[in-house]
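SEQUENCE-TO-STRUCTURE ENTRY
===========================

Subject: a protein chain together with a token-level encoding of how that chain folds.

Sequence line: the amino acid chain in single-letter code, read from start to end.

Question of interest: how does this chain fold, as expressed in backbone structure tokens?
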Amino acid sequence: MLKVVEILPGWTGPHADHVALDYDGRHRRRMTLTGAHGLSFLLDLPAARLLHGGDGLKLDDGRVVVVEALPEPLMEVRGDDGVHLLRLAWHIGNRHLTAQVEAERILLRYDRVIGHMLEHLGAKVTAVTAPFDPEGGAYGDVHHDHDHDH
């Protein structure tokens, strides 16, 4: 079976196939994948990592398969201004939630309880469907959502 030998961030060159995966499907260490055109291969990394939309997966035969981030149900969080959005980001981070941070909004995986909490903090929360490409965390790619007491 073909194996991935290198991950090429933001690949824009030619490619033999592509795989379309949601966030969970793109955060892996080891799995067999089959591209949209039938090319099968093994992803076998030393540690789990998040593959980003647009990454190229270079196979041991030299071909490249491009990763596509599938749209999924998310919450778009907006504040009244930049400072308000920063405060909302602090509350989200305090709960160790995986988040995609942009200049004027934060995207989170859909969670009714978290959405309700953010609305009580004055956020405008809207359900959206979009690819999810969250921050990796200070120590590399982080893949967990949990809440705990400090």
Notes: Strands lie at 2-8, 17-21, 27-34, 40-50, 56-59, 64-69, 71-78, 99-101, 106-109, 124-131. The first strand starts at residue 2 and ends at 8.
